[in-house]
Amino acid sequence: MTKSKKIIIFLSIIIVVAAALFIRNKMLCRAVYRGARLEFDGMSYIETDFKEIEPYKETWNVVCKTDDGVWTICEIDKFPDREYVVARTAWEARVLKRESNIEAVNK
């Protein structure tokens, strides 16, 4: 294989990976902080003490990210129904409890 073919294959792989990451980020839902509430997927979450569900184990399943890109919302292993989730940055984590659906909060 010639050097030019190797370069073309390498660049093609980089383009495919970059496109896949871009599409994945666009498909993730966006969460929005409104005051003390975090809202996404029609649900409202409020910050709670982590001792309420201690010990807990986060999964690597990213539910969504906030619209400003600071917080990443992840599932908790014991709560696949997302009654509790973890909002995480590189240096901080917050446990959030599902309050209710947004329509009920707004009424």
Question: What report would you give on this structure?
Answer:
This protein has 107 residues and is an alpha+beta fold. Helix content is 28%, strand content 41%. The protein has two helices and seven strands, in the order αβββββββα. The chain has helices spanning 3-27, 102-106; strands spanning 29-34, 37-40, 43-48, 58-66, 72-76, 84-88, 93-101. The protein starts with a helix and ends with a helix.
Instruction: Indicate the overall shape.
Output: elongated
Number of E-state strands: 7
Decide which structural class fits the backbone: alpha+beta
Mean pLDDT: 84
The main sheet orders its strands as: 1-2-3-7-6-5-4
Low-confidence stretches: none
For the sheet with most strands, the description reads: 7 strands, mixed, barrel
What is the first-to-last residue Cα distance?
A: 67 Å
Q: How do the helices and strands follow one another from N- to C-terminus? A: HEEEEEEEH
Strand and helix map with partners:
Blueprint: H1 3-27, E1 29-34, E2 37-40, E3 43-48, E4 58-66, E5 72-76, E6 84-88, E7 93-101, H2 102-106
Parallel strand pairs: 1-4
Antiparallel strand pairs: 1-2, 2-3, 3-7, 4-5, 5-6, 6-7
